[in-house]
Request: fold
Amino acid sequence: MVPMQTLPMKQLHLLAALTLLLVTSCNKEDDDPTTPTPAPVVCGIDGARLQATFDGSSFCANASLFASEAGGLMTINGITQQGATLTLELDSLSVGTHAMTETTNTILYTTQLALAYAATDGAPASVTITEHNVSTRRIRGNFSGPLYSPIGGAPKSISGSFDLFYVQ
Reply:
């Protein structure tokens, strides 16, 4: 090693800068209490959310989402960026738990591969309206149950929630 007094001034500045860089770059992020924790992933926002778990996979309507009510029938539809869709046609809009079948309070889920699943009359799913404010046009609730493919096979499980402002 060369003694410092024999190094030219330019090299001394370079050595000092490298030493400072080495000392400051050794600081671990874990040791820094100011390092922020990443925010949890959230689906939508209050008043604009449709999310579910279908057969163990998460669904978040993050490409398209709408809710519309006309003549006592509410249509809720959401599409993911990957192409899966979820549609609820709700005949029962009062607070409470209601059956979801092939003809009343229907639910249709399509995978990103366009495989369709729906509730049946023989094994209904359910929807629970937890809040419906007609004056602000906001509806909240959750749903769950088995969904079946029209081409057969074992049922797939769905559970989810919605919190939406709707148009008339």
